[in-house]
Amino acid sequence: MLKKKICVVVTARPSYSRIKTALTAIKNHPKLELQLVVAGSALLGRYGNAVDFIENDGFTVDEKVFMVLEGENPTAMAKTTGLGVMELSNVFYKLNPDAVVTIADRFETIATSIAAAYQNIPLIHIQGGEVTGNIDEKVRHANTKLADVHLVASEEAKERVIKLGENPDMVVNTGCPSIDLAKEIAESPNLDFDPIEKYGGVGESINWKDGYLVVMQHPVTTEYKQAKVDVTTTLKAIDELNIPTFWFWPNVDAGSDGTSSGIRTYREIHQPKNIHFFKNMEPNDFLRLLKNSKCLIGNSSVGIRECAYLGVPVVNIGTRQNRRERGKNVIDVMYEKDAIKDAVKNRIDSEIIVSEHIYGDGEAGKRIAEVLASIQLHFHKTITY
Amino acid sequence: MLKKKICVVVTARPSYSRIKTALTAIKNHPKLELQLVVAGSALLGRYGNAVDFIENDGFTVDEKVFMVLEGENPTAMAKTTGLGVMELSNVFYKLNPDAVVTIADRFETIATSIAAAYQNIPLIHIQGGEVTGNIDEKVRHANTKLADVHLVASEEAKERVIKLGENPDMVVNTGCPSIDLAKEIAESPNLDFDPIEKYGGVGESINWKDGYLVVMQHPVTTEYKQAKVDVTTTLKAIDELNIPTFWFWPNVDAGSDGTSSGIRTYREIHQPKNIHFFKNMEPNDFLRLLKNSKCLIGNSSVGIRECAYLGVPVVNIGTRQNRRERGKNVIDVMYEKDAIKDAVKNRIDSEIIVSEHIYGDGEAGKRIAEVLASIQLHFHKTITY
Amino acid sequence: MLKKKICVVVTARPSYSRIKTALTAIKNHPKLELQLVVAGSALLGRYGNAVDFIENDGFTVDEKVFMVLEGENPTAMAKTTGLGVMELSNVFYKLNPDAVVTIADRFETIATSIAAAYQNIPLIHIQGGEVTGNIDEKVRHANTKLADVHLVASEEAKERVIKLGENPDMVVNTGCPSIDLAKEIAESPNLDFDPIEKYGGVGESINWKDGYLVVMQHPVTTEYKQAKVDVTTTLKAIDELNIPTFWFWPNVDAGSDGTSSGIRTYREIHQPKNIHFFKNMEPNDFLRLLKNSKCLIGNSSVGIRECAYLGVPVVNIGTRQNRRERGKNVIDVMYEKDAIKDAVKNRIDSEIIVSEHIYGDGEAGKRIAEVLASIQLHFHKTITY
Amino acid sequence: MLKKKICVVVTARPSYSRIKTALTAIKNHPKLELQLVVAGSALLGRYGNAVDFIENDGFTVDEKVFMVLEGENPTAMAKTTGLGVMELSNVFYKLNPDAVVTIADRFETIATSIAAAYQNIPLIHIQGGEVTGNIDEKVRHANTKLADVHLVASEEAKERVIKLGENPDMVVNTGCPSIDLAKEIAESPNLDFDPIEKYGGVGESINWKDGYLVVMQHPVTTEYKQAKVDVTTTLKAIDELNIPTFWFWPNVDAGSDGTSSGIRTYREIHQPKNIHFFKNMEPNDFLRLLKNSKCLIGNSSVGIRECAYLGVPVVNIGTRQNRRERGKNVIDVMYEKDAIKDAVKNRIDSEIIVSEHIYGDGEAGKRIAEVLASIQLHFHKTITY
C-alpha cells in the first residue's frame, strides 16, 4: 500500500514542542510517511538550534531552509516571509507531498501555507481558531482561510474555525501535542537533572534547590520598540524579588534584539545575583523545570497552555496572550514593576493549583496522525456561507 | 494639513479597471495623497502592458515592481508571490504610506497584504467577501483576515466579511469602481471607434458592423492542465457559430500558456474566418465594445459584474465564476461545444436585458476616497467572536 | 571506491549541446558520479524545453531550478541571476558535490560560479578564455576568475586564461564537446528525416529538397532595443533572396522579445513564402540539417564553432561573434540587407569548404571526464603574478 | 549643466572608511551628483551600525538595502549575495545612475558589480588589483573583469589590473581614500578622547594611559570552522602578555559567529583583566587610537595599509593578508601563542617606524572625484589580448 506523504514544516523552537508527539505518531503510523522540513530560526544557533534537538530525537530532516533575514525592523520579518514562500515552493515541488502541515501562527508560517495552497497541495493547519489580539491573529486566521483541514486544540477554537466559514467536517479538535509532553511529565514529575550542570548558560550560579522562578519573555511583534523597556521592567522586578530564577532567552522576532539587548545591558550594569540565563533547553527538561518551579513569569504561551495542564502558577505580563483561553493558574498584569512583584508573591502563596484540560488530554499526537491517515484530502474548498 | 498617503498596488490589467475611478478620486481628494505602485503582469507586454494605459490616463507611477517568474506550473505562481512579498516590503518601507490598498483576489495580491500587515501598515482590502469556489477564494478570504478595512462591492459581500469576524464598523459597501466606468458608458453608449483600425490585433478582418460576439476566457488556476482543452472547445463552438467575433487573449496565470498555446494551435490549423484576436484594449473602449455586442462568452468576471449593469447578455462557461452573485443577463454552461452554441443562440434571441445594480451604482470611486479620508486607521485588530 | 561527485548546471538549450558528450562521459566514467541540474530557460517551453531532450537522452535530472524572471528589460536579466545564486546555493548545499561545472558565458552562468565558489566547492569552468566583445565577455572572464579549473576549447583560449593569471596546471585544452557531436554527424552526414514532418513549426511548407538556408539570429544583449530592427533587416534579405529557408526562434535574453516580436510582426504583414519557422530541434538533427544546408545565416556561435568542423558556409551578421576565432567558412557582414544578400550568394557559390579543427577534434567529452577524474581539486587559489 | 550621477554602494563598516573622503569629494564636486546606497551589514546593529556614522557625517542615504541572511554557514553568505543582486538591480533601475562604484572585495560586492554590469551601467571598481590569496581574491578579480574603470591604490595593483587584460587608459592609481584619513590623523596625532568614556564597550576598565595594544581579528572566510580556535589562541597570547589592550569585535562574515563565540566563551571562563572590548568606533577615532598604540595585532588590512602610512608597528597573524604589499612596520606570524607574544614584544621594542606611502599619499578622495568627473564612461569593453 502507498503511504500518504505528510510534509511537516517546523520553523522555530517553540513550534517543535507543539508538534513533537504528532511527528512521532506520523512517523510510526503504517499508512503515513513523514517528510520533515526544518526552516527559519529553528536552524540558527542564536535561537537555540532546534534542529539539533530534532535530530537527537531521532527524526530525519528531509530539507533545511535558511530564510531568516537580519535586521532590527519589521521589514526584515516581512522579507523573511517572502523568501520563505520562494524556498518552500521549491521544497514542496521537489518532495511532492500528499499534504503539508503548517503550525500555529508565527509570522513565517503563512509562507508554508501559501507555498502549499498555490501548488494545489492539501494544507493542514494545526492550532487555528485561537484568539490573541496581535499580529499573530492576522496570520493565524489567514492560515485558516488558506487551509483545507483544521486540527485545533480546544472546543472554543473549533467553534471559531467553523464560524470562519470552514466546513465542519474538516475541523477536528485533537488537542495540542504540547500537552502530550506535559502529560508524560505530570506522570513522573521529579526534577532529575541539575539545570546549570546540564545546560551551562551564563550568569550567577544560583542556589535553586529550595525553590525557583522561571522567566520567559518574548518581544511583542507589533510594539517592537518597546521590547527593551519591557524586558528591563521585568528584570528589575525579578532582581528586587531576589528569588533564585532561571531566565530563558527570547526566540527570533523583529525586536528580539531589543529584548536581548535589554538583557545584556541590564546584566552588564546590575549583575543581578539571583538570575541565571539559558539559551534553550530540551522540551522535556523545560517542562520538568516548570513543573517543579514556584511560578512562571513572562508572556509565553507555555504559561497559558502547558501550565494549565501541569497546574503551575503563572504571572502573564502584557498583551501577548490577550484573549487566549486560560485556566485558574494564571494572573494577568501589565509591565509595571510593582504589579509584577505583587503577582509573583500572590502566586507563590496560592494553594495547590488543579490541572485543567483546556488544550487537550495528552493524546493529541496520535489523534492527529489518525485523522491524517483517514481523512479524504482536497485542495479545493468554498466558504460555507 | 498633512495629507494621508494612500498606497495602491495594481498587479494586473483587470485590477486596474477595478480601481481606476478610485485612483482618480484619491488623487483629487484634498485630504489624500496617492502613491501608485504597478507590479507583476501589469508591467509586461505579454499581458497587455497595463502600465502604459495607467500612465496615459495621467497617473504617476511611484514604483514599478518586476516580480513575475516564468514557468508553466503553479510553482512559478507561488514563487512570484514570494518575490512580491520581498519586493513590496522594500517599496512600503521606502514610501512609508499611511495605508496600503490591495485589490480583490488574484494570487499575487496576498503579497501586498503580507508586506503591509507585517510592517504594521493599515491594510485596506477592496472587493472582499465575494465567493467563487476556486483558489481565488482562499486568497480573497485570507486577504480579508490580513486587512483592517474592507471596502466591498455588494450587500452580500458585506454580510460575508462581517461573518468572517471583522468589525462591522470597518466594513463599507462602496460598490465596485468598475461599475463607475460602466455607468459612463451606459450614459453615452455609441461605438465611436473601429476596433481593428484602432487596436490592430491578429486574425481575419471580420465584418463586425452588423453585430458581433466578444470572447474572453481565462485559465482556471486550480485546473491549469485543462486550459488548452477548454479553450479549444470554446474556439470550436465560436468557429461553428460563424458569427463575427472579437476574442481577447488571457492575462497571466499558471496555465495562461496552455490557453495561449490552445489559441495559437487552433489558429494555425483551422484558421477560423470569423474570429479576430486582440491582446488588450483600453477599459473604456472595451466596455463600449461589450455594450454594443450581441453577447459576451467566456469566464471573465466582467460578464458577471459590468455586464449586469450594462444589460449585456452573457454566456458564462465553467466553474471560474461559481457562486458569484449574478443578474438575469447570465446563462451558465460547462465546457461542451453544443451547450455553448445553444446558450449563445438563446442569449442573442433574448429580449432586452434590464440593468441591475448588484455591484454598485456607479459612484464607488468617490465613495472609496471619502471613506479613506474619514476613517480612523489602525493596524491592530481582533476577531469579533 | 568513492566516486567524485561532479555537479553540472545546464541553464539553456545551447549550453546542453555544448556539454552533452561530456555528460555522457562523466556518467559512464568509473570514478565519477554525475549530478545534473537543469535551470533557467532550459526548463521553459518558450525556449525549447531543453529539459525534455535531456531526459529523452537518458539523463536523470537531480534538481530543476525555476529562476527566469519575466520582463522586457535588462533588470529582469540581472534579477534572474540574483535569484539563480540563491536557488543554486540551496541546490549545492543539498547535493554536496566534489566539484561544480559551469558552462561558457551566458549571463546566468555566473550564478553557478558564485554559488559554488562562495560555498568553497571547486569550480570547473568550461569554455573560458574566448573573446567576443559584448556583455558575455564580462561574464566569461569573471567566471574564469571565480573558477579553479579551466577546460578550454582552443589553444588561443588556453593562452588567454593563463595570461589572466591562472595556474597553467589548471588550464587544459580539451576542445569543445559540441564538436564531438559534429564529428558524429560528419561521419554519416545524410539528412535522414523530414524537418517539417518531424518538428512541425509554423509558416509556409517550403520545398527544401533542392537546397535550403538556415537562419539563427539572437538578440545582442547590450543593444537589446535594436533587436527588432536587426531581425527585420535579416528577414527582408532572406525574403528577397527567395531561397527555401529554415528559421530558428531565438533563446531567452533581454530583448528576445524584441526579436520574437520582430518575427511575428513580419510574418503577419509580409507572409514570406520561402521561410518555415522552428522553435527548436534535437541537437543531432540540427547539426545534420546544417551539414546539408547551403549556408547558415545569423549570429549564432554554431556558425563559428561547429560549422568550422563541418565545413558549412556561414554568413555571420553583426557584432555578437566579434573577435571569436573563426575558420575560412565564415564571411562577416553588418545588418544591411544588400550586404547580407550578397554574402549569402557568395557563400552559396563558393567551392567546397575544408573542415578545420579550431575548437576541437571531436574527443572533448571523454577528455573532460578524464581530467575531472584525475585532477587534484582545490577551492583556493591565488593569481600567478 | 547636467551633473554625472555617481552611485556608491557601501555594504560594510570597513568599506565606509575606505571610501569616505571620496564620498565627500564626489558630493562637493560641481560636475558630480552623489547617490549613496547603504546595504548589507552596514545597516545592522550587530556589525556596528555604519549607517549611523554615515548619516552623522552629513551624508544623505538614498536607499537602504536589507539583504543579510542569517546562518552559520557559507550558504548564507552565497544567498546574501544573490539577494543583493536582486535588490540592487531594483535600486539601480530606480536611481538610474551614470556610473556605479563598487568597493574592494568583500563577498557581497560582486552583487553590486552584477546589478550594474547587467543593466549596462558603467561600473567603477575601487581597490582592484591587489592580491591576498583567499576567497576575497576570487571576488576582487571577478569584480575587475566586470568593471569598466579601475581606481587602484598602488602601483603594483595598477600593473596587475593591466595584466588582467584591462585597457590601461581605464586604470588609474589614485591611492586609497583610507590613507586620506590617516594623513589627517598624522598631521595632528594626539589622542583627544577617552576611549572607554566615549564608546563604553564591555570588559575590564583598563589603565591604558601608559601605553596599550589594539587587536582586530576577523575570521578567515575559507577556513571558518577554525575561527573559534584561532581567536582563542590570540586571546591567550594577549592575556598572558598582560598589557592593557583594546579589542575590536569582528565584522560580518561566515564564521564571525565562530570568532564572536570564541570571544564570549573566553571572557566567561577566564575574565582577562587587561582586555576591554569595543564593537566599533568612528574611523577617525580608531585611527587616532592606532596612531597612539604600541602595536596593532590581528589580521586586519588596516595593519597593512593605514599603519604603513601612520608608522604603527603591526603583528599580522595568519593567512588573511597573504601576499598583500606591506611595509617595514609589519611582522607576520601564524596562530601560535608564543610566536604572537614574541612578535608583539619585538614590535614594542622596535625603533621608530617610518611612514611609507605604499597605498597612497593622502589625496585619493579628491583624485577619485576628479577621474569620475573627467573620464569618458562606457559599459562595453573587450579584453586587450
UniProtKB/TrEMBL annotation, chains A, B, C, D:
Domain UDP-N-acetylglucosamine 2-epimerase: 25-372
Single GO MF descriptor: hydrolase activity, hydrolyzing O-glycosyl compounds
InterPro entries cross-referenced by the UniProt entry: UDP-GlcNAc_Epase, UDP_GlcNAc_Epimerase_2_dom, WecB-like
Pfam families: Epimerase_2
Record-level GO BP terms: UDP-N-acetylglucosamine metabolic process
Highest rank taxon of the organism: Bacteria
PANTHER family reported for this sequence: UDP-N-ACETYLGLUCOSAMINE 2-EPIMERASE
NCBIfam families in the record: NeuC_NnaA (TIGR03568)
Protein name (Swiss-Prot/TrEMBL): UDP-N-acetyl-D-glucosamine 2-epimerase, UDP-hydrolysing
Organism: Urechidicola croceus
